[in-house]
Amino acid sequence: AKSGGRGAFRFFEPELDELMHARRNLERDMRAALAGRQFELHYQPFVGAATGKTYGFEALLRWHHPQRGMVLPGEFIPLAEETGLIVPLGEWVLRTACAEAATWPAHVRIAINLSPAQFRSKELVPVIVGALASSGLAPHRLELEVTETVIMHDSEAVFAVLAELRELGVRIALDDFGTGYSSLSFLQRFPFDKVKIDRSFVNELSSPRAEARHLARAVVRFAVSLGKTTTAEGVETKEQLDILREEGCGETQGYYFSRPMPASDIARMLRRGSGA
Ligand code: C2E
Ligand code: CA
Ligand code: CA
Ligand code: CA
């Protein structure tokens, strides 16, 4: 459907072509990266708001591109989802993160992000069962983070998979809470154990604008009132932490405590923490 004159069509051509070219390069590079071990996981702690104790770490993908240096997931996850590459990449993440977490003290959990495409793949449950079996990680130490987008796609099928995973003892977290469009009753029906309050609200807790501050507090209160474990994301200041604690938020995560770090730094930190 070429609407507009031939001139208009040609006007867009070079840009489109460049975009397609960049995409093809990125896709080719990602396939090579998976084979060439250019991906790495960094881990960011989540910490009790009142206790200051570390309860676990979220695994976050990093790509060491041979020419471009470190590439963040925002740049490659969308294309990995579109092309289906997220399925083998996600499997690598699950296996690597579970194996790493199995070396940590038994009370420390691992949180792993899942994409909608992984839910459509049919392989998800067997892959998770396999990652748990080969690592020896206890299922209750594994938390899977999903966004509302995952549930919106095909909620009945996704509900069935989530129920199966919870049967195994795995915990489910709803990521980016407050940014989606689900109804409150939908959220109540959804079988999850934990709510992660989106960074945008945590950020507004210290806003100079009163309305923004009030909205942020309301979102935190609503998350807490669902009666699940709550984790606030993107905590950067003491002030934000204090408000979150006061509102009854259980766990916090963000640069205030730590940036995401390589596995070797986490292992060192945990050894220090246990006094070894
Ligand atoms: P997310 O799951 O919401 O992860 C939180 C993001 O916030 C991470 O960005 C983290 O580095 C960043 N962050 C943490 N604390 C702070 C803070 O105090 N301030 C600010 N400004 N940012 C903070 P990152 O690592 O770039 O990841 C971006 C997104 O990419 C993630 O958002 C997640 O949706 C996706 N992602 C990352 N790793 C994976 C993965 O293994 N699989 C899948 N499917 N998606 C992943
Ligand atoms: Ca997450
Ligand atoms: Ca999030
Ligand atoms: Ca996000």
From TrEMBL:
Residues 23-274 form the EAL domain. One of its GO terms (molecular function) is catalytic activity. GO terms for cellular component: membrane. Keywords: Coiled coil, Membrane, Transmembrane, Transmembrane helix. It comes from the Bacteria. The keyword Nucleotide-binding does not apply. This is Diguanylate cyclase (GGDEF)-like protein. It comes from Bradyrhizobium huanghuaihaiense. The chain holds residues 553 to 828 of 833 of the full protein.
